[in-house]
Design brief:
Length: 412
Amino acid sequence: MSAKPSAIIFGGLNTCSRALAALLVPIEGEPLVSHLRIVDKFSVSPPTTYIGSEFPKVLEKPNVEYLQVNLTVPSKVAPCFEPPAGQEAYSIVFDLTGELQWDRSDEVQIKFTFSTARHIALEAAKHGVRAYVRLQLPFYECKEKGTHDEKEDVKPDGVRGFWWHETLRMLASIPDLNLVIVRPGMVYGPYVDYGVVIRFMAVAATYGYIKQPMKGLWGPGKHPTNTVHVDDVVGAMWAVAQWMGQIGRKEANSIAGEEIVYKAEKNKTTTEGMAPPDQKCIAPLFNIVDDSHVSMLALGNTATSLFDTSFEFHNFIVNALSAWKLEDNVEEINESHVVNWTEMLAKSDPPVTKIVYNAYMDLDHLKKHVVAFNAQKIKEVVGYQLRRPQINQETLQEIIDKLKAEGTWPNL
Ligand SMILES: *[C@@H]1O[C@H](CO)[C@@H](O)[C@H](O)[C@H]1NC(C)=O
């Protein structure tokens, strides 16, 4: 019997799964798990999505296996739990599934977020896994001022926010599931092509290129846009998995349980497996953000200083009274960013031919989002220590250097 657990990662190839896999089975050094299976809808060889230059090396490790599975099909979920010959049953499940696009319908969110997680979780409960770690991306509007701890009332943002949040209530309502939830701020890191931070960096790079100040919306920019390095998202997931494995759900709930409240507004669509609105759903929940607790302005200053330019705000006021509508101006806002980024890619030495990163900010990226979390609880309860406590020029430069080395970021 191996002393190390074995683990499955479901979904998240486009978000944090690759970094999680690299933590569990490092390219150099001792693996933390005896066996790792990664399951997602993409092909990885040849890749049908961007996977960065490090992940293929993780996949080559002997104790790592990748399965391409359509997890929206319930009958395809159970076989994922059957370990390869000679391996013990899986004891940890990392659930990073869920639809990321902000503009998808209820039907799409139900199928790809809610029901997918439900099928995986029911199967995990049946197998009695020791820990089921759900990654809850920050599809919330937080309050600008407050404690920002896990008890603070946060509002799910739109259709995507509603279904991701309802997924937590559904998971919490599965009694025998050793569920623990990790809720990060805005994720950034090497090879993380998902999220607003990397877009913001590409836009900042275009302003550096044309030697002009970058102009942000939403002045004065004091609102929190808390960030977290992907190393700490996955570090936190591993830490809570071990914590849960030792104590189980009941005790975890009594130590760190939070009520996850029903939050429907206009959205009244229902689906099979939803917890009734009046049901008290309690699950251990941990925020994870870095110690920088950046505002929009601080993030803008850090990103632009990297490219030798500065960050300012447009001097018109964007509010409900103004005739100016963000929805009507997305293309205009992006025009110069896209043109300049394309020019930078072409002029790069060597030229960038595989286009992964871009400077296009969609409506959701451009909207004002307040992401404000406090990560004290995971530090106190689980003893987690941040690996990357600050977002600064060095952490961002490291990303750019890695992307330049793999040929996905312009080298000018
Ligand atoms: C996955 O299965 C669903 C349901 O059968 C189907 O609608 C979808 O097209 C499939 N996706 C892929 C990538 O095959």
